[in-house]
Specification:
This protein is an alpha/beta fold. The chain contains twelve helices and nine strands. Strand 6 and strand 7 form a beta hairpin.
């Protein structure tokens, strides 16, 4: 528990159990909330040095203690680590619900020009359907107050933790995480809500979106960097908060023009919020510094670490109906 290095911790485990783990089957590295207040690579670099651990293993941050998350009981009967793996799966990434990261890519960001990266932020909640009130795991939870007390645990990784020089500096909420995924990850399909006014009343449209094209482009315009976001998506209506007519239900693949424009504005605002959080915290989430270092070395040399703070975002987001 108080070992200064991972090697000492493993040696202590060997001393107590007679078993020396090589971690050759390690598929998930879960960091506790307290660990992210310091440079997490103080511990993570052990896994990079190891010849046994694959650099494709998942890395995630959790609220509270990792120990509590790993001892929670899954409602689907899986071992806890397997249940967490499913929440952090490539399928979740492709639908924009989670910003998944692996050891190799997390390390590339840390050692790169921007010294920045991100991790999915896991919250353990009690399954209300299992007979208890919903509750999040907490680092202050007392003995016997684990996340699975009174019911099974539900794992939520819809938030994203932003890192600078190995420390957590900011958090994207679920809506900002979705916008980030729409712009800069392997998300192909996504669901999102858009609110419009109809006859003076707010109506929520749930849209299924297919991402046709996305591109991030850093350019030097004058003496300042400009980050261009380009997203092209097609959408269809998955549900509406009001009852629809038979025609509307039958033609769900046709999205009203005002809803498409509202979708563009909604995701532009959420992406802007995500960029602002990253910029203000110093986390180079969108790789501005790396792009400048590679394609505009003179400007990078001139601006240095101030490049991100001086970057201007430009948003080009267009939604069209699926058919």
């Amino acid at each position: 528990k108080n070992a200064p290095t991972m090697v000492d911790a493993i040696a202590e485990l060997n001393l107590k159990t007679g078993w020396y783990p090589t971690l050759v089957h390690c598929r998930l590295i879960l960091l506790g909330e307290e660990a992210a207040k310091e440079n997490v690579f103080r511990n993570i670099d052990y896994f990079l040095r190891s010849q046994f651990v694959e650099d494709t293993c998942l890395v995630a941050l959790c609220r509270g203690r990792a120990e509590k998350a790993l001892t929670a009981q899954s409602p689907v009967g899986d071992m806890t680590y397997a249940a967490i793996e499913k929440v952090l799966s490539s399928e979740a990434q492709q639908t924009g619900l989670v910003s998944v990261n692996i050891l190799r890519d997390f390390s590339k960001g840390y050692y790169g020009a921007g010294e920045s990266s991100f991790l999915p932020l896991l919250t353990v909640r009690e399954d209300a359907g299992a007979g208890g009130a919903a509750a999040s795991a907490s680092p202050d939870a007392s003995g016997g107050g684990s996340a699975n007390a009174g019911g099974k645990a539900v794992f939520d990784a819809s938030e994203t933790a932003l890192f600078l020089r190995g420390r957590q500096v900011e958090t994207l909420n679920a809506e900002e995480t979705l916008a980030f995924n729409l712009a800069d990850t392997d998300t192909d399909f996504a669901y999102g809500n858009v609110t419009v006014s109809e006859q003076g009343e707010p109506v929520v449209y749930s849209l299924k979106m297919k991402i046709g094209k996305k591109k991030l482009n850093v350019r030097a315009e004058g003496e300042l960097p400009v980050l261009h976001f380009s997203i092209r998506a097609r959408a269809q209506v998955a549900d509406v908060s009001r009852a629809g007519s038979t025609r509307e239900v039958a033609q769900s693949f046709i999205v009203p023009e005002n809803v498409l424009r509202a979708a563009e504005e909604t995701f532009r605002a959420r992406l802007s919020d995500a960029f602002s959080k990253a910029q203000e915290s110093g986390c180079d989430l969108f790789g501005v510094c790396a792009a400048l270092q590679r394609f505009y070395p003179k400007l990078w040399k001139k601006l240095g670490k101030e490049a991100l703070a001086l970057t201007k975002p430009v948003y080009d987001i267009q939604f069209d109906t699926l058919h």
